[in-house]
Amino acid sequence: MNDAFDMRGESHIEVHKFRAGAIIIATLLALVIQASFPIHFTKAAIIDLPLLVTIYFGLSRRNPSTGLLLGMVIGLLQDSLSGPTVPLGLHGIAKTIIGYLASSIGARLDTEHPAARFALTAAFFVTHQGLLVLTRRILLAQPEPWFTMHLFVAALVNALVAVFLFLLLDRLRKN
Amino acid sequence: MVAIPSRHKSLVLLAGIIVLQVLLLAVQIKRQSQGRLIRVWTVGAASPFERAGSYGFGWIRDTWRHYFALQNTTKESEQIRRENDALKLQITQLQGKAAEADRLAVLLNFRRSHGEVPMIGARVIGTGAGTASLTIQLDRGERDGIRKNMGVITPDGVVGKVVEAYPNASQVLLLTDKESGVGAMLADSRIQSPVGGQGEPLLVMKYVPNDDAVNLGERVITSGMDRIFPRDLPVGTVAEIKSGNPFKLIQIKPAANLERLEEVLVLLSLRPLEMKNEENSGDAQPPAPGAANPRPVAKR
Prior knowledge:
The structure holds two protein chains of two kinds. By secondary structure, chain A is mostly helical. Chain A is built from six helices and two strands. Chain A has a two-stranded antiparallel ribbon. In chain A, a hairpin with a 6-residue loop joins strand 1 (5-6) and strand 2 (13-14). Chain A is globular and about 45 Å long. Helices cover 33% and strands 23% of the residues of chain B.
């Protein structure tokens, strides 16, 4: 493990560093899979891989500035791949905030346990959807429901996928 | 100048980036632009990987369906099983190619039977990278003659319309998207009314008065009034009818399988077109003089 430690607060929480290019490759792979996978496996559209990658690197890097910048880039790329009916900035704003929150929480809590990762991902997913609805309602004047059963199921599915995906992404860390 | 405490720097950065993106949204709404340059770059960079990903996932899916899912059914000796496995793999590859050939043959037949309508076949290589819109990405773009607002169909029915054309790719807004719509009419009663998406698998037909008779299972076809799709293309069938105020609430099941699209046809014309009745369609005959009269498409 890397020896860099966050000295803020009372507890010393390890800041993880990753192999060169790991964050960029994981991000691009997440976006490409998100765009290609649902063609063949329709139900896979429920999984928001770019969001999971944002949360993971936010929780691991534990630097709010890096987290929010990564969230912004991922969000804007997702917007530009989603077609002109999705304005640039819709996912950008939501993922910027999620990146910031994830890295801020990651700097204060130990987020390595699968149960913690499950709970945090579910909470972040709901928050992310809430931010999308808020942006649509306030800035785009598009009425969207705040809560649906689909959102609840999607949050659980994404949280479950995150537990396994994060274990996979842990392998990209520098030892 | 007031110095910002280091612990607040990230918060200031967050606020700054949010404000910038809100401004970006405002500019797009005000100017009705969608940041085309950024999208062209992103789609241009991503589409080769999407193409590769699409083929890769397709291969995995076919292998899973035709090989692994059947593997437990064979209870033969090790030697025979090995030979069998090798043959299955070969069959898998051949089945994949045969299925693709079948799909392409259907598209080709459809194109031949509608020779007066210029169209081009395209492969679906991606979907919208999010749940905010229902779009698909095609492997053909402006260089193949595809332009914004062109109609996209399959031999089964209407798929959607091109919302953005890039040099080597294009994005199609599916009929099921909330912002999508098509001029349509009921095939039997000839009642005209737009059909739109609602972000769900079923479409909705708007503005049919409660007094008008509509039957379950009745076919819905294009009316040509949207000036994108030619008349008489299948849109779907009436799946549910409820009384509303002041119009009926009619749910339509799309004719094309919008959840499993692999190849589509793009109508290469921005002018209103007339489709020939398939019964009369020979090899690239010119449209009949009376084609302006709406006629239902012959059953396939």
